[in-house]
Specification:
Pfam families: Fer2_BFD (PF04324), NifU_N (PF01592). About 40% of the residues lie in helices and about 15% in strands. The protein has about 230 residues and is of the alpha+beta class. The protein has a three-stranded antiparallel beta sheet. A two-stranded antiparallel sheet has the order 4-5. Helix 4 packs across helix 5 and helix 6 crosses helix 8. The structure holds FE2/S2 (inorganic) cluster.
């Protein structure tokens, strides 16, 4: 029997899935469990998989790591991702999210590179039927490794102008906190200024950055949780 999903209570965050038994906390959907127990496109033997573009990232939120290998072909003038393999030291949510991402990328003849760059972690979560809010950063790991592998493709195919590199912008100059630090904290559940300050102290030494912090808070909540 499949797990019933009920609407989050006021104690859960938007996009969160909750247990009917307790009405709060979190649990995994059947789709998440399916991809966790039978991961698709998982690469066991790296040495056997050659001539692929490699992306590698670590998560500052939890210290876990993800590797993604892509095979890209140009078919009728469209660069398509024909194969997506991956490996991670991440948790169940990272495994399920990346497994789902690999399916989304390779179905229907392979997703065009341009479309893959527009994918958001939210798109993966939708296909999974939701993830506990505290686990959203795990779905970001596969997405970032995908972008890193696409950059590897751009570099190796001489398309250096298409390489997209994330530069951290210093927001709190006293505590040296960047927009990336704020994004990680939001992914870890800091959805108010108070919680952000509790977690990373942003703005406590340099209150002049608070309006900027509040704007980034709104932006990252919208980006990752649609709220
Ligand atoms: S990937 Fe580290 S906790 Fe999920």
């Amino acid at each position: 029997m499949s797990d019933p999903i009920i609407k989050p209570t006021h104690e859960a965050r938007k996009g969160d899935v909750v247990t009917p038994a307790k009405g709060k906390g979190w649990f995994y959907t059947d789709m998440v469990k399916e991809h966790f127990f039978s991961p698709k496109n998982f690469l066991e033997d790296e040495a056997s998989y050659k001539q692929a573009y490699l992306g590698m990232v670590g998560s500052p939120a939890c210290g876990d790591a993800m590797k993604v290998w892509l095979k890209i072909e140009t078919i009728d003038g469209v660069e398509r991702i024909k194969d997506f393999k991956w490996k991670t030291f991440g948790c169940a949510s990272a495994i399920a999210s990346t497994s789902m991402l690999s399916v989304m990328i390779t179905e229907e003849g392979g997703m065009p590179v341009e479309d893959a760059l527009k994918l958001r972690p939210q798109d993966i979560m939708e296909r999974l039927g939701g993830l506990p809010a505290r686990k959203v950063h795990c779905s970001v790991l596969g997405d970032k490794a995908l972008r890193s592998a696409i950059n590897d493709y751009f570099r190796k195919s001489g398309q250096h102008d298409r390489v997209e590199v994330e530069h951290g912008r210093l927001v709190d100059k006293v505590l040296k906190i960047t927009d990336h630090d704020i994004e990680e904290a939001v992914l870890e559940g800091a959805d108010t200024l108070e919680k952000l300050q509790e977690k990373i102290k942003v703005g406590t030494g340099d209150p002049s950055c608070i309006p900027d912090v509040e704007q980034l808070l709104r932006f990252y909540k919208e980006k990752h949780f649609g709220a």
